[in-house]
Structures are given as structure tokens and as C-alpha cells.
Amino acid sequence: MAPLRDRLTRRAPAQPEPGAGEASQEAAPPPPQQGRPPTPGQVRRERRALVRAREDRIRDLGGLLLEAYKRDRLKPELFFEQSAEIVSIEERIQELDGALASLTRRTMAEANRCACGAPLVWGAHFCANCGRPVGEAAVVACAHCGNPLPAEATFCSNCGRPAEPAEAGYQTGPDEQAPTIAGQG
Predict the structure, then answer these.
(1) What pTM, to 2 d.p., does this model score?
(2) DSSP readout, the chain?
(3) Where are the domains of the chain?
């Protein structure tokens, strides 16, 4: 039971001697630089680690309380200290929850959206919600069903037939040229 008690009664690192202060300051790591804000994935990982640490501390606090009761050596200041540490972990988890909510809202607001309001997946040629063509990529129509297709499509997503140049798929004026698939004619 000694290892559990040692883990629970962590002590602050010893203060350096007055003469050794200069040497310890030279070895101290530089202060962290302000860079990019953390990604949602980094925040989730930190939150997950803190939740696990909180659960471990709560379990250890229960074991410490039981052992102290068995030995009739209850020390309230030790329990207050351990409980305060758990509460500080919970506060940090709440901060991360707020940060994660704001990061998620920001990324959703920055996402590309269709005219219907649905989010568009990067590289999509059509909206998954309404089927509207998206972006500047060339779009042709299926020769069999008239369904719009991306220029590099080999099969129609509507009827399943092989995609062919659809001269009849588009209504062309007398002075307009029918669209062709890139790389052909």
C-alpha cells in the first residue's frame, strides 16, 4: 500500500539552495511561444487525458480514505488537498469543453456551404443534400438520363451507365459549341 500512499502524497519539489539558483535558472526551459491555437483534435486528446487522470485521482482518494480509516489516522488536510487537485482538474476540463465548442463552431462557420445551407465536403462536385453542381469544375450531362456529371466521371451516378460525351444532353444555341469531356475532341 506504500506506493499508493506515495502517489497520493506527492510533495512539491524541494527548493534549490541559495547558491545553486543561478545554475537552475540556466537549465530552465524557455517560456512557451504563442503559436497557432490548438486544433479540435488536440483539445479532445488533452480532455480525454484529464478525464482519465481525474478518474484515477478519485479512485486513489477513495483508497487513501479507506486506508486512513483502517489505521485510524484520518488527516483532513490531506483529503482537502487531494480534493482541491481533483476540482482543479474538473475546472480545466470545463475550460477545454468551452474551447472545443468555440473551435467547432468556428470550423463549421468557415466550412463551404451550398446554396441550400448543407456543408460541402472538400473536392465534391455536387451537394450531397440537394444535388446542385458545386464550384468551377467542368460539369457534363449523362447521355442517357441527363443527370449532371463531373468532367472526369466514368459512370453516371444516377443510371449507372458509362459516361459518354453528351452532345444531346445540353441544349446548344446555333453559335455555341457543345461541351466536351476534358481530353477529348
Answers:
(1) 0.42
(2) -HHHHHHHT--PPPPPPGGGHHHHHHHSPPPPP--SPPPHHHHHHHHHHHHHHHHHHHHHHHHHHHHHHHTT---HHHHHHHHHHHHHHHHHHHHHHHHHHHHHHHHHHHS-B-TTS-B--TT-SB-TTT--B-SSS-EEE-TTT--EEETT-SB-TTT-PBP---TTTS---TTSPPP--TT--
(3) 39-110, 114-169
